[in-house]
Specification:
Length: 202
């Protein structure tokens, strides 16, 4: 079976300051994301040994672990490139800007719905913007990494609202983190994902 690798971070740890601190990025990437990669690989190894008769496992539990950790890896692999150094009045252009205006009425209306979805995720998880094959856009929440995810939908924008993504800097003020996060959205990458889709993870 395949094994997964931690992809390189596309910028330095301090590149998103002051919106996201260097220390948060160090911990988030090198501890949390790496943990999902290691967890996915460990679950795959157990399943492989089970298939060969070398190990007895609780298959349901191991498959649940695999889903959790692999989705954590996949979501973070998309998440890092959709951010860039902060920019004031950061708004989408290109095709994604046109689609947002057409389907939501304005960027401000889209920002309100997506931002509220992020702030209201129950417990921990993500707010996600999906696009289908006809370029219809859907805002959804993902609880944890693997609950309420929509298969066969292309993820083109997402924000991590697990506490490890913001607590060290924003404490329990998730809304403040979400509001500041718009400054670091890499709309060129969002447009690229809309056009080409995300590649297979490393």
């Amino acid at each position: 079976m395949t094994r997964y690798n931690l992809p390189p971070l596309p910028y330095k740890y301090d590149a998103l300051e002051p919106v996201i601190s260097k220390r948060i990025m160090e911990l988030h990437y090198s501890i949390h994301h790496k943990g999902y990669v290691d967890g996915a690989n460990a679950a795959l190894e157990k399943l492989e040994k089970y298939a060969k008769g070398e190990l007895e496992i609780d298959v349901k539990a191991v498959m649940r672990d695999f889903s959790f950790h692999l989705n954590g890896h996949l979501l973070h692999t998309i998440f890092w490139p959709v951010m860039k150094p902060p920019e004031e009045n950061n708004k989408p252009g290109g095709k994604i800007g046109d689609l947002i205006d057409k389907q939501f009425g304005s960027f401000e209306a889209f920002q309100k719905v997506f931002g509220t979805a992020a702030k209201k995720v129950e417990g921990v998880g993500w707010a996600v913007l999906y696009a289908d094959a006809d370029d219809n856009l859907y805002i959804m929440q993902i609880e944890k990494h693997n609950l309420m995810h929509l298969p066969n939908m292309k993820i083109i924008l997402l924000i991590d609202v697990w506490e490890h993504a913001y607590y060290l800097q924003y404490e329990n003020k998730r809304a403040a983190y979400v509001d500041a996060w718009w400054q670091v959205v890499n709309w060129e990458e969002v447009d690229r994902l809309l056009e080409k889709g995300h590649a297979s993870p490393p």
